[in-house]
Design goal:
With 328 residues, the protein is mainly alpha-helical. Helix content is 39%, strand content 3%. It has a two-stranded antiparallel sheet. It has a two-stranded antiparallel sheet with strand order 3-4. This is Cytochrome c domain-containing protein.
């Protein structure tokens, strides 16, 4: 290579090398900057997750209404034993050590145990909450016997207990939505509950004239819609299924609970016919809806319901009056 060519080569190399070095540095800097942004986003997401409040409806209540599974073992859902609400006036529900505590709603949990005389939530000192002590098998009163719950296990996991503890630490706030017909009531009447035949499979209109293939007691009761429930039973006689002034006295609830009058004592009128029956927790969901005004799918008042579909029911002796014994 001549001296001139060598000179030009070295000059070019002297120019290109710094430029190349700068490009590498800038690229490295951008990558580093991009990594920092990603790290910041990750940190923000983790921070938001840490700050997220525990929801009673979404995070806490489901722990009490579902069974716990571990291997082949499965616990009894808490509300299977602890179901007698202290916040609604249910008639005919026997009280005992189990049912004097309900874990089926926020109001019931906050009402406490022993017929409402012993709080189970302590927001000032969460660790002293009787609810947590029972779930962890701790507490001064458990020295003489095994009172850990759910009775016999499988027990709540540390993660599940941590959720309840965090909820209490945050003030045990309530985010329970108002009773909703489409969400809380209609599925119980139109779908199988605990393996039973759906109520609406038999009770889907209130007019025996159009339902000759079914028994009178089946045909004169419509549990397939809000209008049907408000319409009542026995066609145009409209024997009320719900009692807004005394929800527990509602015919619908009495049939689901198997509560009978002296005249009905010889017959089995509990529904769904032959079982399996609704649990008290499920019945209380309907009872709370009635106590809240039995509003329609869009918040309508019962007085606004179109009950013109009810027809003749052969003298009005259908399922509402207690003479029918058809299956659901």
């Amino acid at each position: 290579m001549s001296k001139n060519k060598m000179k030009y080569f070295l000059i070019s190399l002297g120019i290109i090398a710094p430029v190349f070095s700068i490009a590498i540095h800038l690229r490295s800097g951008n990558a580093s900057s991009q990594l920092t942004v990603e790290e910041k986003n990750t940190e923000m997401k983790l921070a938001q997750k840490r700050k997220k409040s525990i929801s009673f409806t979404d995070d806490v209540l489901p722990l009490f209404v579902r069974s716990k599974k571990k291997g082949k073992s499965e616990s009894i859902p808490c509300i299977k034993c602890h179901f007698s609400s202290l916040t609604i006036e249910s008639n005919g529900i026997p009280e005992n050590a189990l049912t004097e505590l309900s874990l089926g709603s926020y109001k019931d949990i906050m009402a406490g145990a022993d017929a409402g005389t012993e709080p189970i939530i302590d927001t000032d000192n969460p660790e002293k909450s009787l609810l947590l002590q029972r779930l962890e098998g701790e507490g001064e009163d458990l020295g003489m016997y095994d009172g850990r719950m759910p009775y016999g296990g499988p027990f709540f996991t540390k993660k599940e207990i941590a959720i309840i503890r965090k909820w209490i630490e945050e003030g045990a706030k309530d985010d329970t939505p108002s009773p909703d017909f489409n969400r809380d009531v209609l599925p119980l009447l139109t779908e199988s509950v605990n393996g039973s035949t759906p109520c609406s499979l038999c009770h889907y209109n209130n007019n025996s004239a159009t339902s000759r293939e079914r028994s009178q007691s089946q045909a004169c009761l419509d549990l397939s819609s809000w209008e049907g429930i408000i319409s009542g039973a026995d066609g145009i006689l409209h024997e009320a299924l719900i009692d807004l002034e005394n929800p527990a006295n509602s015919m619908l609830l009495k049939r689901l609970r198997g509560q009978q009058t002296e005249e009905e004592i010889e017959s089995d009128h509990r529904m769904p016919f032959g079982g399996p029956y609704f649990t008290e927790y499920e019945i209380q969901k309907i009872e709370r809806w009635i106590a809240n005004g039995a509003k329609g799918p869009n918040g309508e008042d019962p007085s606004e319901a179109d009950i013109s579909g009810a027809g003749e029911c052969m003298g009005g002796s259908g399922s509402g009056s207690g003479s029918g014994s058809g299956s659901e």
